[in-house]
C-alpha cells in the first residue's frame, strides 16, 4: 500500500508549484555531473560499453532545499558500482537534470534526458508525474521514489519501478501502522490535520483517523480545511484541547507541523504522541525549532544509520567516499531515494545481459523478486506481483527528537497492513 508518510512532504510541494504554474513560463536547463556528448535517443549499449543514466530532481526552485542533495546519493551509488567494474561490466555515466521545481521544467528535462540517449531514468522529483508519459512512450525504464503520484501503479506504466515501495496502490488505503504506534505510546484520542488544497494531505489526514480508530483510539479532531502552508493553529489547538486529543499527526509540511506543535503546547494540550510524517533530516537539529520538537516522533521508511546493518554501512561509506558526507550527517530522504533508485537501475542492467537495452531492463526488472534496497527497506519487493499494490504490510522506523538529536524508538520497524473498504473515504 502507499503509505501517506512516504508521499506527503514532496507531493505537498507539487501542489504549491502547480498552483503557481499558470504564471510560470520558465523552462529549466540541465545541471550535469558528467557531460558526455549527446547521441540519438538510444536504448541500449554494446558489450562493455558505458551506459548513460539520468537523474531527474529539483536542485533549485521551491523543492530545492529538500532535493538539492539528491545527486549525492546518485553519484555515491555510481561511484561504488563503477569501482566494482561497472554494472555487468558497463561503467555508468550519470547526468543530473534539474527540473527547477517547475511543471514545464520537468517535462523539458525528461524529454532532454531521453533525447540525450540515457538508457534509464532515476526519478527523485515531486513533479515526475507531469512527465512520466514520455519515458513510458519511449520505453525507457524509470526507477526511484514513488512519492510524487500514482503513475507508479497505474496500468500502462509498467516501465516504472519504485525502489522505495515497489509500486503504488492508486486507491491509497489506510494502514494500521500509525494507529498501532499511537496506541503503544499512550494515545487514546486522535487528532489529524491536512491541507484543503492538497488531495494527498487531505487523504492522509483521513487515513490517520481510520488507522487510529482501527487501533481502538477515538476520533477527537479531523481538520482538512487548513490553508496550504499555514502556521496559525491557535483555533485548532483549542479544538484539540476541548476534544481531549492526546495523539497527533499533522499530515502537512514541517513548518506547519512545528507551528501546530507549538500551538498545542501553548494551549496546554497534553500530547502523549506527536507524529511527524516528514522532517527526519540532520539539518533540522540545528534550527531554532528543535527545542519545540522535543519528544515528537519522526517516521522514516528507510533504515536509520543508527541501526547499522550492511545496507546502512554501505550507503554511509559510499557517501563519505564519493560525496564527502560525514557519517554524522545521516542520509536525507532525497539521498536515500536517489541512491536506491540508481542501485535498482544497476540491478536491471545486470539482469539484462551483456548488451543491455532499455527494453531488456524493463523486461528483467519486471520479473525480479528479492529487492530490499540492500537492507535499507524492511520488506521484500517482488516486481512481478506488486504492480498496482505497493507493500503490504508497510513499515516505518520511528525516531524521537531529543536534545542532541534523533533517538531510535526501537530497533525494529513498526508495520501495518492495509485497512480494506476505507480507500478515499472521509473518516467519520
How does this model look, in words?
The chain has 428 residues and is an alpha/beta fold. The chain has two domains: 4-165 and 309-382, Response regulator (Rossmann fold), CATH 3.40.50; 177-300 and 394-416, 3-Layer(aba) Sandwich (Rossmann fold). The chain contains twelve helices and 15 strands. The protein has helices at residues 4-20, 64-67, 70-83, 103-115, 133-138, 177-184, 199-214, 234-243, 254-266, 310-323, 333-351, 358-365, and strands spanning 51-57, 92-98, 120-124, 142-144, 160-162, 189-195, 218-226, 247-251, 273-276, 297-300, 369-371, 381-382, 394-402, 405-408, 414-416. Residues 1-7 and 20-42 have low confidence and may be disordered. Pfam families: Peripla_BP_6. Residues 50-373 form the Leucine-binding protein domain.
Fill in the keyword field for this structure.
single chain, Rossmann fold, 428 residues, globular, 8-stranded mixed beta sheet, 2 domains, 5-stranded parallel beta sheet, alpha/beta
* Residue windows where pLDDT falls under 50 for at least 5 positions: 1-7, 20-42
Number of helices, where a helix is a run of at least 4 consecutive DSSP H or I residues: 12
Q: What would you call the structural class?
A: alpha/beta
The largest pleated sheet is described as: 8 strands, mixed
Annotated CATH homologous superfamily of the largest domain: Response regulator
Could you say what the CATH topology of the largest domain is called?
A: Rossmann fold
Name given to the CATH architecture of the largest domain:
3-Layer(aba) Sandwich
**Beginning-to-end CA distance, first to last residue:** 22 Å
Number of strands: 15
H/E topology pattern = HEHHEHEHEEHEHEHEHEEHHHEEEEE
What's the CATH first level of the largest domain? Alpha Beta
Query: How would the global form be characterised?
Result: globular
**Average pLDDT figure:** 90
Helix content: 25-40%
Domain Leucine-binding protein: 50-373
InterPro entries: BCAA_transport (IPR051010), Leu-bd (IPR028081), Leu_Ile_Val-bd (IPR000709), Peripla_BP_I (IPR028082)
Keywords: Amino-acid transport, Signal, Transport
Region (Disordered): 23-45
Amino acid at each position: 500500500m502507499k503509505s501517506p508518510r512516504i508521499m506527503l512532504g514532496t507531493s505537498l510541494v507539487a501542489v504549491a508549484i502547480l498552483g503557481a504554474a499558470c504564471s510560470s513560463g520558465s523552462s529549466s536547463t540541465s545541471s550535469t555531473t558528467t557531460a558526455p556528448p549527446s547521441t540519438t535517443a538510444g536504448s541500449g549499449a554494446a558489450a562493455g560499453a558505458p551506459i548513460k543514466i539520468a537523474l531527474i530532481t529539483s536542485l533549485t526552485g521551491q523543492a530545492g532545499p529538500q532535493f538539492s542533495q539528491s545527486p549525492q546519493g546518485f553519484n555515491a551509488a555510481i561511484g561504488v558500482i563503477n569501482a566494482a567494474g561497472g554494472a555487468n561490466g558497463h561503467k555508468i555515466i550519470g547526468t543530473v537534470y534539474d527540473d527547477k521545481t517547475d511543471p514545464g521544467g520537468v517535462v523539458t528535462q525528461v524529454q532532454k534526458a531521453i533525447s540525450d540517449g540515457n538508457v534509464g531514468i532515476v526519478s527523485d522529483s515531486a513533479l515526475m508525474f507531469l512527465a512520466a508519459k514520455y519515458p513510458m512512450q519511449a520505453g525507457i525504464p524509470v526507477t526511484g521514489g514513488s512519492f510524487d503520484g500514482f503513475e507508479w501503479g497505474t496500468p500502462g506504466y509498467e516501465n516504472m519501478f519504485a525502489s522505495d515501495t515497489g509500486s503504488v496502490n492508486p486507491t491509497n488505503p489506510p494502514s494500521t501502522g500509525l494507529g498501532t504506534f499511537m496506541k503503544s505510546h499512550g494515545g487514546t484520542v486522535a487528532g489529524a490535520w491536512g491541507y484543503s488544497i492538497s488531495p494527498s494531505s487531505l487523504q492522509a489526514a483521513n487515513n490517520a483517523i481510520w488507522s487510529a480508530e482501527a487501533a481502538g483510539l477515538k476520533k477527537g479532531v479531523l481538520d482538512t480545511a487548513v490553508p496550504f502552508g499555514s502556521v496559525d493553529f491557535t483555533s485548532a489547538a483549542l479544538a484539540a484541547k476541548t476534544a481531549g486529543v492526546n495523539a497527533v499527526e499533522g499530515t502537512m509540511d514541517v513548518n506547519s507541523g512545528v507551528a501546530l506543535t507549538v500551538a498545542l503546547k501553548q494551549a496546554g494540550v497534553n500530547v502523549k504522541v506527536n507524529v511527524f510524517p516528514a522532517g527526519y533530516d540532520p539539518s533540522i537539529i540545528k534550527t531554532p525549532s528543535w527545542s519545540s520538537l522535543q519528544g515528537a516522533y519522526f517516521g522514516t521508511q528507510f533504515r536509520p544509520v543508527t541501526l547499522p546493518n550492511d545496507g546502512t554501512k554501505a550507503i554511509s561509506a559510499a557517501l563519505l567516499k564519493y560525496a564527502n558526507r560525514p557519517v554524522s550527517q545521516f542520509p536525507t530522504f532525497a539521498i536515500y531515494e536517489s541512491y536506491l533508485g540508481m542501485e535498482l537501475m544497476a540491478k536491471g542492467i545486470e539482469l539484462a545481459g551483456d548488451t543491455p537495452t532499455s527494453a531488456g531492463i524493463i523486461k528483467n526488472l519486471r520479473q525480479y523478486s528479492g529487492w530490499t534496497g540492500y537492507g535499507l527497506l524492511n520488506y521484500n519487493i517482488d516486481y512481478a506481483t506488486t504492480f498496482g499494490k505497493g507493500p503490504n504490510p508497510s513499515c516505518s522506523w520511528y525516531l524521537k527528537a531529543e536534545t542532541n538529536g534523533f533517538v531510535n524508538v526501537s530497533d525494529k520497524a513498526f508495520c501495518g497492513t492495509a485497512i480494506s473498504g476505507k480507500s478515499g473515504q472521509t473518516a467519520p
